[in-house]
């Protein structure tokens, strides 16, 4: 029952983090600027983890993730405008984004490597251009969105995202995805329906990107198609790559670090992008596997305590 | 609707894409890297041309040559600093480094000169003449001539010179080329230099034709030129020229039909269709993975 | 036993562009046989395996497994019908542990759904437990149990080859295709491997098709042999018949001569 242990530790940790966050924000100890940063960190973790499933676990190099973010953002914004409850809007945004993921994934996941990357980038841009051309959502001028995202709603979404993606990864289905990443031809030869799992991972990743998009939209007062260009895709990609392709905790840590850094440099957007790009280049040149490689943070703990936190691999 | 005029517009736009696409395709052909920074080299070329004309008072041809020279150097520097170490790294690492270099050039430029637009001086005669009822500007004819001349020179370099032969050998088989005594590093540098010079030329031509230039101007033409390269068959030099022309014509057609908001989407739809149905492109041959 | 053939290949072939890689390939394998497929380098042995396992779709001919047509099916579908394989150039899931490598192969035999795993329903735990037990059982047979938490790529070469066979076996085949399983092994390792193959064959009531470059090796254990040369089947029969077959001698002699030239 080691796996259950891991779950209870995770649950306890989540409750503590949530309570501390709620305390800081609720009591006004943290000014609105920093409160917002906290919420933004949570949203970015959701986005990072959703892309981690596609790139890190399944090995499918998608660089158009912002397209699914856009779908979730717009769909949920339309629904809250129609006075539907926020949770319903978030879920629907995720579902429609997952559907978009299927539409994009089924044709493009036949491609590999560079070609897949470029195709997903193209799809991301097409999604953005579609929103530019829909008058109902304000076209290029954008759409007003009520401010509904709170620490609680964001954190609950994050918690569900993490549970689902960890449970998926640590099962025979997750192993099927990892086997595709490791050697697609061998996975196929071992009876894995590679197309099915690639598309499934893609749709699941798109679902959570859509949920993240809903939170993102309702954390601002206006959304515009330009918010979801490929620079946004790269932002998410950077979390996954810096954290270490294949490491969920790495993606989480990178999302936290990069969000803090970029918030800190908000007043200097050029400097921020220069630092971003230099860090990216240096990490790729000197540590191409990212900060964590494929290891999880739990595997470092297990060295000391001998407890395996439900990890799948790593030494 | 004046079809002949649209045709000329399409070909002019297409020749700019083609010039950028050539660099993409040459670099991909030789080191299998999608050089995302290529669109930004194009942007730098445009700015060098701009400053050469407005600041140094050069005329168009010397400005063009200066832009090409600066971009050639920039291309070589990028390759030496960022890409050289990645030759044996994973494709993903290489692609991400290229994205990093691209962002660095864009925001470095903004950092040093700001994000504001510049208006390119009209360095070519703005006269136009009538041909079968269509108004054709002298500018677009000159632009087209410059592009064609550059492509012919490229073809001669690749087919006839020692460097060109070395480039083809390295793109075919790096190890065999090395064993035959070809200096692989120098050949790759030469490829970057030539490809970047063409992008620089495209930058100047773009400036003359579209008049407005800014630090992020390379992003969309860069992506589209990549689409053009894939369309023609990536790694195949004549393919890039054909892909560029086709893309330029399609985009002009989409705009001419009144869907200019969808113009950018057209390029990406073409990209996806070609990737799905014939990933090797118009001129490419299909290859398969060895099991 | 020999009532109905398990695998029937009728005039199968494939062209790449204009080039015929394999053509007119016919073979019949009965339940429980151990058959060898031999031939000089580049004869089309691995290509034939790729035809049988769906990696390549035959451009001509027909492949019947258990009386049913399988050409045109995807590799994973063919594996699920009961044909599994190893690869000449080892294709393990390098970053996964030895245990996880085998677990992946058992995936298609497990039944718990994606939803049950995400919600951690009881069927998930039962399913994962079964997978783990089965995987361990295969590792035990191959003497790899003590390596179970080792990362696959860190295994010694010979063990990697054994792991590949263990993995292929975990996919639950009735017909096992082994592509040069002894390549790169020393004589002692090869001997142990051959004994192991004989053992699993009996234990799991397997039918085995074995590619081997080294003729001497297969002569000892295979009941019948098929010989390919330049994409064509040039001979078939018992080891004794093959040993004295003039075209086989010619094919192998040709190779010796060209090797001497190089």
From TrEMBL, chain A:
- Could you identify this protein by its name? Branched-chain amino acid ABC transporter permease
Q: Output the Gene Ontology cellular-component terms.
A: plasma membrane
Membrane-protein topology: Multi-pass membrane protein
State the organism named in the record: Paenibacillus montanisoli
Major subcellular location class: membrane
This protein's record includes keyword DNA repair: no
Keyword Membrane attributed: yes
* Any Pfam family the entry gives: BPD_transp_2
From TrEMBL, chain B:
InterPro entries in UniProt: ABC_transp_permease, BCAA_transport_permease
Q: Where are the transmembrane segments?
A: 7-31, 51-78, 90-112, 132-158, 188-210, 265-284
Q: Which GO terms describe its cellular component?
A: plasma membrane
User: Which compartments is it annotated to reside in?
Assistant: Cell membrane
The annotated topology with respect to the bilayer is: Multi-pass membrane protein
Task: Tell me which Gene Ontology terms the entry assigns under biological process.
Answer: D-alanine transmembrane transport; L-alanine transport; L-isoleucine import across plasma membrane
Q: Which CDD domains match?
A: TM_PBP1_LivH_like
Keyword annotations for this protein, in alphabetical order, are: Amino-acid transport, Cell inner membrane, Cell membrane, Membrane, Transmembrane, Transmembrane helix, Transport
Task: Tell me the GO molecular function terms.
Answer: L-isoleucine transmembrane transporter activity; L-leucine transmembrane transporter activity; L-phenylalanine transmembrane transporter activity; L-valine transmembrane transporter activity
Entry superkingdom: Bacteria
Task: Note one Pfam family from the annotation.
Answer: BPD_transp_2
Q: Does the keyword Transmembrane apply?
A: yes
Per the record, the similarity remark reads: Belongs to the binding-protein-dependent transport system permease family. LivHM subfamily.
UniProt cross-references to PANTHER family, sorted A to Z: BRANCHED-CHAIN AMINO ACID TRANSPORT SYSTEM PERMEASE PROTEIN LIVH, HIGH-AFFINITY BRANCHED-CHAIN AMINO ACID TRANSPORT SYSTEM PERMEASE PROTEIN LIVH
* Protein name as catalogued: Branched-chain amino acid ABC transporter permease
TrEMBL record, chain C:
Segments traversing the membrane: none
Q: Which gene encodes it?
A: livG
Under InterPro entries, the record lists:
AAA+_ATPase, ABC_AA/LPS_Transport, ABC_transporter-like_ATP-bd, BCA_ABC_TP_C, P-loop_NTPase
Q: Quote the protein name from its UniProt record.
A: High-affinity branched-chain amino acid ABC transporter ATP-binding protein LivG
**Molecular functions per Gene Ontology:** ATP binding; ATP hydrolysis activity; L-isoleucine transmembrane transporter activity; L-phenylalanine transmembrane transporter activity; L-valine transmembrane transporter activity
Pfam families cross-referenced by the UniProt entry: ABC_tran, BCA_ABC_TP_C
Q: Which Gene Ontology terms describe the biological processes this protein takes part in?
A: D-alanine transmembrane transport; L-alanine transport; L-isoleucine import across plasma membrane; L-valine import across plasma membrane
**Gene Ontology CC: one annotated term:** plasma membrane
| Domain ABC transporter, residue spans | 7-255
Q: Which UniProt keywords apply?
A: ATP-binding, Nucleotide-binding, Transport
Query: Secretion signal: which residues?
Result: none
């Amino acid at each position: 029952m080691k796996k259950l242990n891991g779950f209870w530790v995770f649950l306890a940790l989540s409750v503590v983090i949530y309570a501390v966050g709620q305390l800081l924000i609720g009591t006004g100890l943290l000014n609105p600027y920093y409160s917002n940063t906290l919420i933004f960190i949570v949203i970015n973790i959701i986005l990072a983890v959703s892309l981690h499933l596609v790139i890190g676990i399944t090995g499918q190099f998608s660089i158009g993730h912002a397209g699914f973010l856009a779908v979730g953002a717009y769909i949920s914004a339309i629904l809250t405008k129609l006075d539907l409850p926020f949770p319903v809007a978030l879920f629907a945004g995720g579902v429609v984004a997952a559907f978009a993921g299927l539409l994009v994934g089924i044709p493009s996941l036949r491609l590999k490597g560079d070609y897949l990357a470029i195709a997903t980038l193209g799809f991301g841009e097409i999604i953005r251009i579609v929103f530019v051309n829909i008058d109902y959502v304000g076209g290029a001028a954008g759409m007003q969105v009520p401010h509904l995202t709170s620490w609680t709603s964001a954190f609950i979404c994050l918690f569900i995202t993490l549970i689902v993606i960890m449970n998926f990864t640590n099962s025979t289905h997750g192993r099927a995805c990892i086997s595709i990443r490791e050697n697609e031809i061998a996975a196929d030869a071992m009876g894995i329906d590679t197309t099915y799992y690639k598309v499934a991972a893609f749709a699941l990743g798109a679902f959570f990107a859509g949920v993240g998009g809903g939170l993102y939209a309702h954390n601002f007062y206006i959304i515009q198609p330009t918010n979801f260009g490929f620079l946004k895709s790269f932002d998410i990609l950077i979390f996954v790559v810096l954290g270490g392709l294949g490491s969920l905790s790495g993606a989480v840590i990178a999302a936290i670090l990069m969000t803090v850094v970029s918030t800190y440099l908000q007043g200097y957007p050029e400097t921020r992008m220069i630092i971003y790009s230099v860090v990216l280049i240096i990490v790729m040149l000197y540590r191409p596997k990212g900060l964590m490689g494929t290891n999880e943070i739990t595997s470092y703990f297990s060295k000391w305590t001998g407890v395996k936190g439900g990890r799948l691999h790593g030494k | 609707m004046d079809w002949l005029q649209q045709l000329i517009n399409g070909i002019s736009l297409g020749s700019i894409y083609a010039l950028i696409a050539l660099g993409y395709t040459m670099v991909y052909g030789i080191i299998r890297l999608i050089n995302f920074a290529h669109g930004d080299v194009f942007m730098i070329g445009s700015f060098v041309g701009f400053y050469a004309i407005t600041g140094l008072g050069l005329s168009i041809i010397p400005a063009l040559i200066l832009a090409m020279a600066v971009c050639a150097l920039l291309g070589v520097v990028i390759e030496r600093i960022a890409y050289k170490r990645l030759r044996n790294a994973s494709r993903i690492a290489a692609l991400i480094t290229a994205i990093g270099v691209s962002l660095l050039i864009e925001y470095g430029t903004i950092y040093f000169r700001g994000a504001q637009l510049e208006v390119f001086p009209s360095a070519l005669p703005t006269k136009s003449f009538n041909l079968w009822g269509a108004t054709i500007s002298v500018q677009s004819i000159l632009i087209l001539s410059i592009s064609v001349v550059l492509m012919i020179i490229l073809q001669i370099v690749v087919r006839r010179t020692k460097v060109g032969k070395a480039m083809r050998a390295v793109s075919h088989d790096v190890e065999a080329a090395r064993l035959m005594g070809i200096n692989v590093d120098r050949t790759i540098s030469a490829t970057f230099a030539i490809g970047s010079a063409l992008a620089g030329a495209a930058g100047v031509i773009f400036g003359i034709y579209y008049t407005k230039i800014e630090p992020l101007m390379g992003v969309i033409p860069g992506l589209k030129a990549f689409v053009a390269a894939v369309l023609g068959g990536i790694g195949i030099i004549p393919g890039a020229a054909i892909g560029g022309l086709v893309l330029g014509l399609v985009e002009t057609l989409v705009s001419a039909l009144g869907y200019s908001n969808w113009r950018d989407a057209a390029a990406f739809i073409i990209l996806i269709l070609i990737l799905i149905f014939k990933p090797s492109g118009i001129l490419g041959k299909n290859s398969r993975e060895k099991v | 036993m020999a009532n109905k053939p398990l695998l029937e290949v009728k005039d199968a072939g494939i062209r790449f562009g204009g080039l015929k890689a394999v053509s007119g390939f016919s073979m019949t394998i009965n339940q429980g046989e151990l058959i060898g497929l031999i031939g000089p380098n580049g004869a089309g042995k691995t290509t034939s395996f790729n035809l049988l396992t769906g990696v390549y779709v035959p451009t001509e001919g027909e492949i019947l497994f258990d009386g049913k047509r399988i050409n045109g099916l995807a590799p994973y579908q063919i594996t699920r019908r009961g044909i599994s394989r190893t690869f000449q150039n080892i294709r393990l899931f390098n970053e996964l542990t030895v245990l996880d490598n085998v677990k992946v192969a058992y995936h298609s035999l497990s039944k718990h759904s994606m939803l049950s795993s995400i919600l951690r329903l009881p069927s998930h735990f039962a399913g994962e437990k079964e997978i783990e037990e089965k995987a361990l059982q295969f590792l035990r047979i191959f003497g790899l149990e003590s390596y179970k938490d080792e990362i696959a790529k860190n295994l010694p070469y010979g063990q990697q080859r054994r792991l590949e066979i263990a993995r292929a076996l975990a996919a639950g085949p009735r017909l096992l295709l082994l592509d040069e399983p002894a390549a790169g092994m020393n004589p002692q390792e090869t001997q142990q491997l051959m004994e192991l193959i004989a053992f699993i064959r009996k234990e799991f009531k397997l039918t085995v098709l074995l590619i081997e470059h080294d003729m001497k090796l297969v002569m000892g254990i295979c009941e019948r042999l098929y010989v390919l040369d330049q994409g064509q089947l040039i001979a078939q029969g018992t080891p004794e018949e093959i040993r004295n077959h003039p075209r086989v001698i010619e094919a192998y002699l040709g190779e010796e001569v060209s090797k001497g030239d190089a």
